[in-house]
Amino acid sequence: MKLVVVESPAKAKTIEKYLGPGHKVLASYGHVRDLPPKDGSVNPDEDFAMDWEVYGDKAKQVKAIADAAKASDTLILATDPDREGEAISWHVRELLAKRKALPKDVRRVTFNAITKSAVLEAMAAPRELDTDLIDAYRARRALDYLVGFTLSPILWRKLPGAKSAGRVQSVALRLIVDREAEIERFRAQEYWTVSARFAASGQEFTARLIELDGKKLDKLSLGDKGSATEAKKAVEAGHFAVASVETKPFTRNPPPPFTTSTLQQEAARKLGFSASHTMRVAQQLYEDGLITYMRTDGVQMAGEAISAARKAVADRFGAQHLPDKPRVYTSKAKNAQEAHEAIRPTDFSRERAASGDHGRLYELVLNRALASQMAAARLERTTVELTSDRARLRATGQVTLFPGFLALYEEGRDEKAEDEEGAKMPHLAKGDRPEKLGVDAVQSFTQPPPRYSEASLVKRLEELGIGRPSTYAATLQTLKDREYVRLEKNRFIPEESGRLVTAFLERFFEKYVSYDYTAELEEELDDVSGGRLEWLKLLEAFWRDFKPKAGEVMEQKPSEVTAALDEFLSPWLFPEKADGSDPRLCPLCGTGRLSLRGGKFGAFVACSNYPDCKFTRKFGQGGEDAGSSGEPADLGEGILLKSGRFGPYVEQGDKRASIPKDVQVDLDWAKKLLSLPREIGAHPETGEMITASIGRYGPYLQHQGKYARLSSTAEVFETGMNAAVAKLADAASGAGRGRGAAREPLAVLGAHPESAKELKVMEGRFGPYVTDGTTHATLPKSADPKAVTLDEAVALIDAKAAKGPAKGKKKAPAKKKAAPKKAAAKKK
C-alpha cells in the first residue's frame, strides 16, 4: 500500500478518489509540530538546536499517520508546493523516523492545482525533499523565535502594558505609526480653483484656469478668497477662443494574473475582505480544485492555461479582444521568486463556481486571469486650451476607442488621483469660440497622506521587500489581536500601546525595526532557500549583534528607559505652542515640568511637583491638556472636558456624554454628543420616530424598541431617513432568520427516486444544504446552490444517511445518566 500525506481532509478525499485502490490518503491538518513557547526552544549555544514539540491536538492524527505508515511500503509526501509545505513534509518524515515507522521508499510530489491530470502527473514525477527550502524554513522560524522571545520579556519589564514584539510584525506596526505621525504633522493649506463651464455642439465641458496675466498657476497659487475672486472676475470678463487642440491616442495594457499579495489587495478594494478572510476562502477554492495554489509571487501562467484563457476570451468576447501573441509577464516585486504559477482558475470555461464569498472571489480570480490575456484598451486623450486677453484655460477629456480588457476588468485603486481625466469632449477646432455658461471659484484644502488600508499596507510591505506575501494576513491579524491598532472605516489607526511599543523599539532597537535591514534579512533568507547561503551562518551573524544589544537594554532601569522615551517622544508629547510658551510647563500648578512616567497600567504624562500637584495626562493625548485628572478643560459655552473612570467625557450642567474613540473632541463635537439622541424623523410606514444615538456597544438606530448598528460615530449624525429605514429593515430581516423562522427554499429539485421525498436546497446558518425533510446534507463550499442537480442532491442525501447520526449525539445519554449515580453515592 502507498500512504499519501497531504495537509487538509478536503484534499485527502479528492486525491484518494483520483488515485484509486492501493492508495491511502491522510491529512496532517497543517503543521504537526512547532517550537514550544518557552525559553530554550532554540539554543544558540548548540548550533541553534531546535526543540520541536507535537501540537497537543495533533497527537491523534500523527498516530494515525504512523500506524498507516507501518502498514505501507511507500510514503508519498504531497503537501503544498511552497516552503511551509516542504517543512510539513519534513516534520512528518522526521516524526515517522523517530517512531521507527518510516517506509523505505519516501517520495515528495507537488502539484499546483488539485485536478486529476495535475495530481497524476505529479505522482509520475516524484523528487527528494528540498533541503534548501527546509533550511530556509528553519532559519526563518528560529529568527522569529529569537526576536520574539528576546524582545517580549524586555517589553514586559521595561514597558508596562506592552504585549509582544515580532520581526515583521513590529516593522508593519512602525509603518502604521509613521503614517499617523505624518498626518499629525501635516498642516492643511488653503487653495482655490477657478474654472469656467462652456458648451459647444450641444455638449458641455469644463476648463480650468492655468495662467493669469502671463503667470502660470500651480495648485497653491490662488491661496485665498481675495486672489480667487480677482481671478474669477478676469475669467468672467474674458472672451475665450480655442488656442490649441491636441489629441493623443494611447493604450492601456491589462495587469498580470493574481499573486498572493495582489489578490489580497483587490479582494480588500472590491469585495471588502480582510487579508485573512481572503486567504481562508482562497484555500477552500484551491482544495475544491477550482483555482491553482494561492500562495505564490509568480505572475506567469502555464502554456496550456494561457491557451485555455485565450479560447475563453474568444468565445465570450470575440477574436478582436485577443492580442496577436499570448502575453508573458514577469514580476516587478522585490524578492519575487516566481516558483509557482500565478493564481488562476483550473478550468477557464467555468464562468461561475461556488456561492457567497467563495463565488465572488472565484469570479475575481477568473476575470483577472482572463483579462491578462486580452487585448490592450485603446483610448484617446484630448487637451484643449482656450485664451483671452488675460487668462488661459485648459480642458481635458478621454474617450475609449476600443475597450479591450476593460470590457471585463479594471484594477482597483486605493486613492483617486487628483488629476482624473475628464469626460468626453465636444469636437473643437482652433479659433472656435464656445459659449461660456458660467465661472466658478471653489475653495479646497490640501489633504494629509491617507492612513493605510489592508490593501495599501500589503502593497507597501511588498514594495519594501518586508516579510513574504503568504505571511501578511497573519501579521496584520496579530497587530489587531494585540490591540496595537484598530480599524476604522477600513483604515489602520495606531493605539496608544502600539505607538509606545514602536517608540521603544525605534529608540533602543532601531536597526531591527528599520525597513532596509528587515528587507536585507528577507533577501538573505531567500538566498538560503536558493542554496546560496548557509542557514546557520545567517543565524550566527544575526545573534552576534542582537544578543549584546538585548542584554544592554535589559540592564537599564525602567526609569532610564522612561527618561529616554520622554526625550525621544518630546516633539509629539510636547509640541511647540503657538504663543511660544514652554510646552512642558504644568497647566495646573504653573511651576512644575511635565514629563513621561511609567505606571502599572501603562505610560502617562505627569507634573514634576507630584505629590503636591496631581496633574496627569493620558499618554495618547499627544500634547493636549484636555481631560486631565488635574483640572477639567473648558471647551466653551459652559462645556467641560473631563476624564473619569471609564475615559474622557464632556459635561454641560447635568448632562454628560462619553467620547467615542473615533472622535477628536472640540466644541462642535461636544455639542453634538450632548445633543443625543438625535431624531431622524417619523418612519414612513409606522409614523413612529427613528432615533440615532451611542450606547454601551457603540452607535445605533432605534425604532419601536428594535435596533440596527451603525459603523461609526459620524453615521449617528449623517444617516438620513432612506438609509435609516434600509438599515432597520436589514437588521429586522437578519433577526428573522433565527430559530423557527419559516424559510423559502433556494431550489426545489424533485422527488428522491427511492423514498419519493421532495428534495430541496435550503440556506442554513452554516451555509446552503440539501434536505428531504429528515436528512440534511451540507453542500460543498464550491457548489452553486442554485445549480445543484437532482442526481447530485440524491448522492449527498444517501451518503449522509449512510453515515447515520453524529457520534456526539450517541454520547449525550451516557452523560445524563452519570448525575444520578453521584447523587446516590452521597446518600449512602
UniProtKB/TrEMBL annotation:
<dbReference type="Pfam" id="PF01396">
    <property type="entry name" value="Zn_ribbon_Top1"/>
</dbReference>
<dbReference type="Pfam" id="PF01751">
    <property type="entry name" value="Toprim"/>
</dbReference>
<feature type="site" description="Interaction with DNA">
    <location>
        <position position="482"/>
    </location>
</feature>
<dbReference type="InterPro" id="IPR013825">
    <property type="entry name" value="Topo_IA_cen_sub2"/>
</dbReference>
<dbReference type="InterPro" id="IPR023405">
    <property type="entry name" value="Topo_IA_core_domain"/>
</dbReference>
<feature type="region of interest" description="Disordered">
    <location>
        <begin position="801"/>
        <end position="828"/>
    </location>
</feature>
<dbReference type="InterPro" id="IPR013826">
    <property type="entry name" value="Topo_IA_cen_sub3"/>
</dbReference>
<feature type="site" description="Interaction with DNA">
    <location>
        <position position="141"/>
    </location>
</feature>
<feature type="site" description="Interaction with DNA">
    <location>
        <position position="140"/>
    </location>
</feature>
<keyword id="KW-0238">DNA-binding</keyword>
<feature type="site" description="Interaction with DNA">
    <location>
        <position position="31"/>
    </location>
</feature>
<feature type="active site" description="O-(5'-phospho-DNA)-tyrosine intermediate">
    <location>
        <position position="293"/>
    </location>
</feature>
<comment type="similarity">
    <text>Belongs to the type IA topoisomerase family.</text>
</comment>
<dbReference type="InterPro" id="IPR028612">
    <property type="entry name" value="Topoisom_1_IA"/>
</dbReference>
<feature type="site" description="Interaction with DNA">
    <location>
        <position position="144"/>
    </location>
</feature>
<keyword id="KW-0863">Zinc-finger</keyword>
<dbReference type="InterPro" id="IPR005733">
    <property type="entry name" value="TopoI_bac-type"/>
</dbReference>
<dbReference type="InterPro" id="IPR003602">
    <property type="entry name" value="Topo_IA_DNA-bd_dom"/>
</dbReference>
<dbReference type="InterPro" id="IPR013498">
    <property type="entry name" value="Topo_IA_Znf"/>
</dbReference>
<feature type="site" description="Interaction with DNA">
    <location>
        <position position="156"/>
    </location>
</feature>
<feature type="compositionally biased region" description="Basic residues">
    <location>
        <begin position="806"/>
        <end position="828"/>
    </location>
</feature>
<comment type="subunit">
    <text>Monomer.</text>
</comment>
<keyword id="KW-0799">Topoisomerase</keyword>
<protein>
    <recommendedName>
        <fullName>DNA topoisomerase 1</fullName>
        <ecNumber>5.6.2.1</ecNumber>
    </recommendedName>
</protein>
<keyword id="KW-0479">Metal-binding</keyword>
<dbReference type="Pfam" id="PF13368">
    <property type="entry name" value="Toprim_C_rpt"/>
</dbReference>
<keyword id="KW-0862">Zinc</keyword>
<feature type="domain" description="Toprim">
    <location>
        <begin position="1"/>
        <end position="114"/>
    </location>
</feature>
<keyword id="KW-0413">Isomerase</keyword>
<dbReference type="InterPro" id="IPR003601">
    <property type="entry name" value="Topo_IA_2"/>
</dbReference>
<dbReference type="InterPro" id="IPR025589">
    <property type="entry name" value="Toprim_C_rpt"/>
</dbReference>
<feature type="region of interest" description="Interaction with DNA">
    <location>
        <begin position="164"/>
        <end position="169"/>
    </location>
</feature>
<feature type="site" description="Interaction with DNA">
    <location>
        <position position="295"/>
    </location>
</feature>
<comment type="function">
    <text>Releases the supercoiling and torsional tension of DNA, which is introduced during the DNA replication and transcription, by transiently cleaving and rejoining one strand of the DNA duplex. Introduces a single-strand break via transesterification at a target site in duplex DNA. The scissile phosphodiester is attacked by the catalytic tyrosine of the enzyme, resulting in the formation of a DNA-(5'-phosphotyrosyl)-enzyme intermediate and the expulsion of a 3'-OH DNA strand. The free DNA strand then undergoes passage around the unbroken strand, thus removing DNA supercoils.</text>
</comment>
<dbReference type="InterPro" id="IPR013824">
    <property type="entry name" value="Topo_IA_cen_sub1"/>
</dbReference>
<dbReference type="InterPro" id="IPR013497">
    <property type="entry name" value="Topo_IA_cen"/>
</dbReference>
<keyword id="KW-0460">Magnesium</keyword>
<dbReference type="Pfam" id="PF01131">
    <property type="entry name" value="Topoisom_bac"/>
</dbReference>
<dbReference type="InterPro" id="IPR006171">
    <property type="entry name" value="TOPRIM_dom"/>
</dbReference>
<dbReference type="InterPro" id="IPR034149">
    <property type="entry name" value="TOPRIM_TopoI"/>
</dbReference>
<dbReference type="InterPro" id="IPR000380">
    <property type="entry name" value="Topo_IA"/>
</dbReference>
<dbReference type="InterPro" id="IPR023406">
    <property type="entry name" value="Topo_IA_AS"/>
</dbReference>
